[in-house]
């Protein structure tokens, strides 16, 4: 079904080739890079639909690479899945904080990896040409940069828009305030964690008149989740 382009950044040839083989067989177009330098060259040459980044790279850590991609305007929308070894599991949280959309722990089967890739592509809206994401009565038009309920625009400030856009494309997952800061401000600006609460409050207020403020849920001790299920 696919034809989607995947860039693999992994220095270990055996693993890289195994992944590339599995993905090609599943119909993906694959490009390979062994380090940051090659990854940059590949990205400049042709934009992939998703990047797989290994945690350990020779010239720059996968974490740094991901952070860089998520910081830069041209690549920030690009979905990233990090590949980590079991020993690095404790660093998963870091991986997500760097802006990675998901992570897969080695060893993994090609099948498992492909399932995760497809899930991330679906979430990111890259699996179709339409940039419209719907969640309950909310309709996100990424090209038009607006969110509507039955044709009525939800009044949102720029930050609340970004926040709701992020929530709608990453539903049913808990994000810490720290992770939200990283995703919404790119992690390179100093913003207090409490700022998140302020924007969440504003966002709920905007959603209230549509009866949808219940979607933005507080998860005690953890952060926030955007969910259609009752809290
Ligand atoms: Ca490696």
Fold and architecture overview:
Helix 6 (158-169) packs across helix 8 (193-208) and helix 7 packs across helix 8. This protein has two domains: 5-125, Response regulator (Rossmann fold, 3-Layer(aba) Sandwich), CATH 3.40.50.2300; 132-226, Winged helix-like DNA-binding domain superfamily/Winged helix DNA-binding domain (Arc Repressor Mutant, subunit A, Orthogonal Bundle). The protein is α/β, with parallel strands linked by helices and 231 residues long. The radius of gyration is 18 Å and the shape is globular. The chain has a five-stranded parallel beta sheet with strand order 2-1-3-4-5, with helices on both faces. Helices cover 39% and strands 22% of the residues. Bound molecules: calcium ion (CA). The site of calcium ion has 6 residues, from loops.
Secondary-structure blueprint:
Layout: E1 5-9, H1 13-25, E2 29-33, H2 36-45, E3 50-54, H3 62-71, E4 80-85, H4 92-97, E5 102-106, H5 110-124, E6 132-135, E7 138-141, E8 146-149, E9 152-153, H6 158-169, E10 174-175, H7 177-185, H8 193-208, E11 216-219, E12 223-226
Parallel strand pairs: 1-2, 1-3, 3-4, 4-5
Antiparallel strand pairs: 6-7, 7-8, 8-9, 10-12, 11-12
Helix pairs in contact: 1-5, 6-8, 7-8
The protein binds calcium ion.
Calcium ion is lined by residues 10-12, 54, 56-57.
